[in-house]
Amino acid sequence: MNKQRSNADVANKKVNVGAILGKYGVYIALLVLFVALSFASESFLTVTNLFNILKQNAVYGILAVGMTFVIVTGGIDLSVGAIVAMAACFAAALAQKGTTTPVVIAMLVGIVAGLGCGAFSGFFIAYAKIPAFIATLATCTIARGIVYVFTDGRPITGVSDAYKYIGRASWGVVPVAVVIYAIFLILGTFLLKYTKYGRHVFAIGGNKKAATVSGVNVEITEFMVYVICGFCAAFAGLLLSSRIQTGQPAGGEGYELDAITAAVIGGASLSGGKGSVFGSLIGILVVGILTNGLDLLNVSSYYQQIIKGVIILLAVLADRKKD
Amino acid sequence: MASECILEIKNIKKSFPGVKALDNVTINLKRGEIHALVGENGAGKSTLMKILAGIYTPDEGEMLFDGKPFVPKKPVDALDKGISMVHQELDLVPEMTVEENVFSGREKKKGIMVDKRGMQKRTQDLMDELGIHLDPKDKIKNLSTAEQQMVAIIRAIAFDAEVIIMDEPTSAITDREVAKLFEIIEKLKGKNKSIVYISHKMDEIYSLTDEITVLRDGQLIGSVHTKDVTPDELIHMMVGRELNAVFIKDAPKSATYDENEVVLKVENLTRANEFYNINFEVKRGEILGIFGLMGAGRTETMETIFGLRKADSGTVTMRGDKIHGVKAAIRKGIAFVTEDRKLFGLNLIGSVKDNITIAYLKQVLKGGFLMDFKKEKATSDELIERLKIKCASRDTLAGTLSGGNQQKIVLAKWFMGDPDLLIMDEPTRGIDVGAKAEIYKLMDTLVKEGKSIIMISSETPELLGMSDRIIVMHEGFITGEASKNELTQEELMAYAIGETEKAKA
């Protein structure tokens, strides 16, 4: 009996090493990265630089929060980059120097645009049952087209000082953008982990049919994740245009991939049912710190791309080992 | 030098984290033998089959094929030796034809092109040999479950397999199709092929097999000649305890039965091409059995009652209130234990706890939308305990548990809401004798508490044993209704195949 037990224990231990590596692999990677860069570059481990990393990545981070919701349902949203540009241009156009429109209204218009795009995708995905890949690709193309029509392809400059606040101001050493990102992280975690709605999101990502049988309103739940994602994308757009003081019609291009990357490195599974908002932060940090460190070490951005790609693969491989 | 045994499995051991899946298992499979492999879920049957197929490597022990060492590293190794499997969950490609599925992965070639005609001919020859009438050019999605089963068998023997392993091949087909399947198995035996037959069904084991090997908790309990062992002895070997009453519902009607208290009333329910004019009532404390063959419209009718499908006409009334939609059905106290656990019942990558609480999350919320984790844990632990779900913890993933335990999770999910009416679609399909008995017992407890149950089943002994009243459906119509004492298995079948006159006579 004892012998049997010890055999089982040995087997247990063997697998546990792999499981631990899988479970905490991303954290270990993050730690190694952090320590290594602290030694490699003097300017890495400074308060300014660390907040700078967060500030630079707040836009991607907020996108990744929304994207996590979508990915947990088993969906994907390719339109967030276009929504970033749309919200940015609409708001920037309304928040010109010397106009009487309050900045808050300008920003609200940008956010409503994002909500509208999300609702548009969400409707076709949840109710018309069009695959998310296709529906959001269409939304992406349409939204980008609207932005070009609206701006005539020209960047919108001359925004008011008030508009620049969220992207550029700091409270002490803490940039406002980082505070906003933190709020998104907290609200996102709260919604996904601590509410009934969040539980429904996981349920439909795990097994849509079983969720239906259990009385989950699959359509509304699915519709809402795209609205949430659209909201996050619009806010990210406001932050971006505030920081660069411009509404760029071509802005945000390819950001959807950065958001997906962060969510996936953070443990979300593209087949649904798995993922966390906190994980998306880890994903953002891995990519953000790596980029920052490589910049400080003067590694060419061409090489950085290659390294980023390898990191994505490693993260997913480690995740697979967990199961 | 042909040895008498085609396959010898010797002292195989295999451990997984925390469990000894197989401990010193030895089995000898003779040529031309039909060998039953039985045991409760989790006894180690699947593990053993996966070792044979080269999916797992044993920790200890050896295997001999035709007297020579056999060390499969991957599924193709087993196939190349001549060991084929027909899996319980059919793994055919719906969009491909019969012939394409048979040759999938091992296509015949003519130069660099696939030899379509050659493959079609071979498929046709095999079907002729076994007396199967299918068109090799038909797509799998157009075939019935039983026909798909036949295709899986053709695929298993298409490459001169010497050993064919069948994992519960009758779990999804009707009695008549079972007879056909048995004919085919006998023909294979006649050609000196060896069959390993995994099943839970006593009658099949006795009518078909020569030898029985029993596993329990990874241990070899014994191998016996089928004719030397009685069903009671066999069940005893499997579960290690007496199961003198498999059907424990002894009293004809539960004490809570009330003929005047109608719980569910279905009137003129119709959904074109699926079922027509369905009328019936379910009384308090009653188990209503629903019988019918594949395609009789049983599941479709139940899904419509539960709100998963929209009726063309007709009404469903629960305790006097008309119901529309799943949410309303659940709110009114209906629960639906679906037929296919993996497809409709469970989130396999979710935890046991998450699966249990999903239908009645309302009960474990603070302030209407915030999860009350403490309460959720307590509720799920209580249900795990009450239904004796075997899992390491409430956080174990549902997909890692055995079929019987998965089915108990589905039941636990509904028990949480204390529903008045449970619709149970094939509640014991694919689970072992011990778990079956537990489910029957739970059903009995429920009706004793004054709940009502609709039980859909394809197994007539179970229906006749458990139901108070049975409705039979045939091609979308109710063709018969009787209290269980008025029915025999033969009459039930006669109604189900639409021979109503014969049934009445």
3D structure, described in words:
- With 323 residues, chain A is mainly α.
- Chain A has 13 helices and 2 strands, in the order ααααααββααααααα.
- In chain A, 76% of the residues lie in helices and 1% in strands.
- Chain A has a two-stranded antiparallel ribbon with strand order 1-2.
- In chain A, a hairpin with a 2-residue loop joins strand 1 and strand 2.
- Chain A starts with a helix and ends with a helix.
- Chain B is of the alpha/beta class.
- Chain B has a 6-stranded mixed sheet, sandwiched between helices. Chain B has a 6-stranded mixed sheet with strand order 18-21-22-15-23-24, sandwiched between helices. A 4-stranded antiparallel sheet of chain B has the order 2-1-4-5, covered by helices on one side.
- In chain B, a hairpin with a 2-residue loop joins strand 11 and strand 12 (219-225).
- Chain B is globular, with a radius of gyration of 24 Å.
- The model of chain B has no long low-confidence stretch (mean pLDDT 85).
- Chains A and B meet through helix 1, helix 8 and helix 9 of A and strand 2, helix 10, helix 11 and strand 20 of B.
Query: In angstroms, what separates the terminal alpha carbons of chain B?
Result: 60 Å
Number of helices of chain B: 18
Poorly predicted tracts of residues of chain B = none
Percent strand of chain A: under 5%
Number of strands of chain B: 24
Would you spell out the secondary-structure blueprint of this structure?
The complex is a heterodimer of chains A (323) and B (505).
Chain A: H1 2-40, H2 47-72, H3 80-94, H4 103-127, H5 132-151, H6 165-168, E1 170-171, E2 174-175, H7 176-194, H8 196-206, H9 208-213, H10 218-244, H11 255-265, H12 277-296, H13 301-322
Antiparallel strand pairs in A: 1-2
Helix pairs in contact in A: 1-12, 1-13, 2-7, 2-10, 2-11, 2-12, 3-4, 3-5, 3-10, 4-5, 4-10, 7-8, 8-10, 11-12, 12-13
Chain B: E1 5-16, E2 19-30, E3 34-38, H1 45-52, E4 60-65, E5 68-69, H2 75-81, E6 83-86, H3 98-102, E7 109-110, E8 113-114, H4 116-130, H5 145-157, E9 163-167, H6 175-190, E10 194-198, H7 202-208, E11 211-216, E12 219-225, H8 231-239, E13 258-271, E14 275-284, E15 287-292, H9 298-305, E16 313-318, E17 321-322, H10 326-331, E18 334-337, H11 341-345, H12 352-357, E19 365-366, E20 370-371, H13 373-386, H14 403-415, E21 421-425, H15 433-448, E22 452-456, H16 460-466, E23 469-474, E24 477-483, H17 489-496, H18 500-504
Parallel strand pairs in B: 3-10, 3-11, 6-9, 9-10, 15-22, 15-23, 18-21, 21-22
Antiparallel strand pairs in B: 1-2, 1-4, 4-5, 7-8, 11-12, 13-14, 13-16, 16-17, 19-20, 23-24
